[in-house]
Amino acid sequence: MKYIILLLTSFVLASCTSKNTEQTSKYSDIIIHKQGQSLDDDDVITRACADFVLSKNSVYHFFNQSQVISEIQLHNEHDILPCYSEGTLILDDKPYSWRIRAGGTGVLSSNDEVINKACSEKACSNIPNLH
């Protein structure tokens, strides 16, 4: 009986591990096209934004750790900072362009979809240069 319980526990843990891998691996083929960009033409802000550089790993973690939010939530509840980095990735076998802003907001866009995302300071504390 003891061995049956151990065997069943192993199957359950293997099942959970498999599901967890699927959930965290839906973002792939991350390419960074621009780093340290600014939406503002002011020289001081442009120079400050040059330091907003993300690694592929940081982009991956941002999208995995952030929450989907509405356009209204994005504009009413979050600071849209002028510094950003952008690129492309694959989400669930579909190509998207992405942009992540220094304040912890981001967007994924395809030909037929826009997904706004936000990542709290706590959830994204492991991403350098964010917040």
What fraction strand? 25-35%
Q: Total number of β-strand segments?
A: 6
Measured as a percent range, the helix fraction is 25-40%
Q: For the largest beta sheet, what order do the strands appear in spatially?
A: 1-3-4-5-6-2
Q: In terms of structural class, how would the helical and strand content be classed?
A: alpha+beta
Molecular shape: globular
Low-confidence stretches: 1-24
Q: Biggest β-sheet: count, sense, barrel?
A: 6 strands, antiparallel
Please render the helix and strand layout as text.
Blueprint: H1 2-24, E1 27-38, H2 43-49, H3 56-65, E2 67-69, H4 71-77, E3 83-91, E4 94-101, E5 105-109, E6 114-118
Antiparallel strand pairs: 1-3, 2-6, 3-4, 4-5, 5-6
Question: Concise description?
Answer:
The protein is an alpha+beta fold and 131 residues long. It has 4 helices and 6 strands.
